[in-house]
Amino acid sequence: MKKGEIDIEKIYLTKRHSDFTKQISEFKDDPFMPSSIQKTLNELFNDINNNLRTILKGELECFMIDFSKEYFNKGNAPKFDPIGVYNNFNHSRVHHRETLNKLNEDIRKYLRIDEKW
Length: 117
Description:
The chain is an all-alpha fold. It has one domain (15-111). 69% of the residues lie in helices and 0% in strands. It has 4 helices and no strands. The chain is elongated, with a radius of gyration of 20 Å. The N and C termini lie far apart (64 Å).
């Protein structure tokens, strides 16, 4: 902590998350993928990255500043609930339901699943 500011340099993520975002990236960059699907995948990929690099990072920095002020002013660690940090992030983040629904629609349209034959 320098001058009342926190700079989080790294956030460690799970292998499952890494594999998932890698797969989205490969699909969105595939030249044979229809452009409408690529566009929706790109939107999803950007939202995921924004959630982690901007929103989660900001929430963690705010928490660390609040925690540090209490710790350094009173000399002991304050009680906190990690679920509260998660809830703050969950309320601030971009939710993906609409984007995933749009992706589903784009794929169904491209594959002509709902058309009558």
